[in-house]
Design brief:
alpha/beta; UDP-galactose 4-epimerase, domain 1; 2 domains; seven-stranded parallel β-sheet; two-stranded parallel ribbon; 11 helices; about 40% helix; globular
């Protein structure tokens, strides 16, 4: 990827900014970020700006607006697109139609540019939410798509749309389905996930909160491992297929909360909210065999040290 002009939609967001940081190491000609800052933050790109200088360009734009994206791709002479822009899952509860329409619109916009040869390779970020609750484990890439939210439905629709365009036009692409990412810079505001929420609560002296019996499981992966995997998949020539990006291990939410309590030295109790969150998937446990067959040296970070790094980051942020 050295000397390549790369576009990252959603590049100021959590996973997107970590991918930008990883791409810097590939010595691209330039990296162009398109982000509407719904959840993304310019400061997430501080390291990339230091390392790339004028070779990092940031457009505060909506990636679903076709004329804008066409102009950017054309003027910046983009060759490779990483598509991580998304309206996130929690937003779908209050704005289901906007979530679905915007997410599908982003992919439709980029597919139209791809089939017209505006760029050379399209790498799309899907989501494990497209699967819904596990019907069998470990969940392979052939697991049925049975989303429980309009966000999950939008991610499933994106994947089907890309595959249909490929059948019609024979396109260069691949799709990665990340499972539950966590790490530094994860959103800890209104739409926060369980790990940043719990760490923030504990560091402010409040107890962790468990929703329901805590037996819901997730397959958590450290965000830097995801970024490394995506770059490795690109370099390996993985094309026209879907791959899970995951640790391939499941942990229950109650065990996760206890782990965070141990890492943060929380000695108090864990607060239990009697009802699970609406439409929460019951079980996620991914099959990582396809990823490991392509990226031979994939060695995901263990959960405890990775959470320790995130806790240290939050402490440093508060200092």
């Amino acid at each position: 990827m050295g000397g390549t002009n790369i576009l990252v939609t959603g590049g100021a967001g959590f996973i997107g900014s970590h991918l930008v940081d990883r791409l810097v190491l590939e010595r691209p000609s330039k990296i162009v970020v398109v982000d509407n800052l719904f959840l993304g933050q310019p400061e997430n790109l501080a390291d990339a700006r230091t390392n790339l200088g004028a070779r990092l360009k940031i457009y505060i734009r909506d990636a679903s607006i076709a004329p804008i994206m066409e102009q950017i791709v054309k003027e910046e002479e983009i060759q490779l697109v990483y598509d991580l822009a998304t309206v996130p899952l929690p937003t779908s509860f209050g704005q289901p139609r906007w979530t679905f329409d915007n997410n599908v619109g982003i992919v439709m916009c980029l597919l139209e540019l791809l089939r017209r040869d505006f760029f050379e390779l399209y790498v799309h970020c899907s989501s494990s939410e497209a699967y819904g609750t596990a019907k069998f484990v470990p969940m392979t890439e052939d697991h049925p798509l049975n989303p429980t939210t309009t966000y999950g439905a939008s991610k499933a629709a994106q994947d089907l749309l890309i595959q249909s365009y490929d059948r019609m036009y024979d396109l260069p692409f691949f799709i990665f389905r990340p499972f539950n990412n966590f790490g530094e810079r994860q959103n800890d505001r209104a739409y926060a996930g369980v790990i940043p929420t719990t760490i923030q609560r504990v560091l402010s002296g409040q107890p962790p909160v468990q929703h329901g019996d805590g037996n819901q499981t997730r397959d958590f992966i450290y965000v830097k491992d995801t970024a490394n995997a995506v770059v490795a998949l690109t370099r390996a020539g993985f094309r026209r297929d879907i791959v899970n990006v995951c640790r391939g291990r499941e942990v229950s939410i109650k065990d996760l909360l206890r782990l965070i309590a141990d890492v943060t030295s929380w000695k108090g109790s864990i607060e239990v909210a009697p009802n699970p969150r609406a439409t929460d998937v019951a079980r996620h446990f991914a099959d990582s065999s396809k990823l490991r067959s392509i990226v031979k040296d994939f060695r995901p970070t263990d959960l405890e040290p990775a959470i320790g790094r995130v806790v240290s980051w939050y402490k440093g942020k508060a200092a």
